[in-house]
Write a structure and sequence with these properties.
The chain has one domain. It contains two helices and no strands. It has helices spanning about 1-35, 45-50. The radius of gyration is 18 Å and the shape is elongated.
């Protein structure tokens, strides 16, 4: 019983790690697209805004 619970935690951690690695790759890509100046267009903000569902 305890071993099964521990294995479930291991599996959950693996899924969380994979999700965080995917987020890291996305952020690295967005940072690479960022000019870092005062331009009004920002790929980081554009991507974040697109990910947020808008309320009707």
């Amino acid at each position: 019983q305890v071993k099964k619970i521990a294995q479930a935690h291991i599996d959950d951690l693996g899924q969380r790690i994979a999700a965080m690695q995917a987020m890291q790759r996305t952020l690295q890509s967005l940072v690479g697209c960022c000019k870092g100046d005062d331009r009004p267009d920002c790929p980081i903000l554009d991507d974040l805004a697109a990910a947020v569902p808008h309320k009707p």
